[in-house]
Write a structure and sequence with these properties.
- By secondary structure, this protein is mainly α.
- It folds into two domains: 94 residues, RNA polymerase sigma factor, region 2, helix turn helix motif (Rna Polymerase Sigma Factor, Chain: A); 97 residues, Orthogonal Bundle (Arc Repressor Mutant, subunit A), CATH 1.10.10.10.
- 74% of the residues lie in helices and 0% in strands.
- Belongs to the sigma-70 factor family. ECF subfamily.
Amino acid sequence: MPTDAELVAEIKQGSKAAMDVLVKRHYHTVFAFFYRKLGNDQLAYDLTQEVFIKVIKAIPRYKNSKPFSHWLLTIAVNHSRDYFRSRAHQQSATQLPLFESLKDESADIPKLLSKKLDSERVKEALGLLPDHQREAIILKYYHDLSIKEIASLSNKKEATVKSRLQQGIHKLKKQLKRRDIDEETTNQLRKTR
């Protein structure tokens, strides 16, 4: 199986087959990033296609100074930021739902995220976070990137990434606890009827 670097070298020499292999190898990673960030599979599909079009155009300028997957995620992160600034996103009146539901495990958010749970409650709670916190959490817990790698991808300092992760986890914990309390109250009201 050829490495990403070997495939890139072949692509630079004009191999379309190498591009197909490279896209197939990394498609799920990019799609998963967008889906987790947006919670909409059709939009994630569209943005993933746009990223690979950008990759095809930019690959002649790619240098092997960092892993291809890191370079690809950098393009995806920047493209998602462009989308959130776009008129199409600004005009969408509804916030797209995000992650799926958790049982009673809301106490240890990092542990839950490291299990890569996609429950409705987690999706919804993540959807309420500011974009920069959501992005940091998705890259850390769903793409297993280190703080240093996230800092490099987002052109931020490691301390900024740590802060975004801590604040995002704190907000997630509050959201999930609030939802647990709301569900408990609803269940108690049903029992009294």
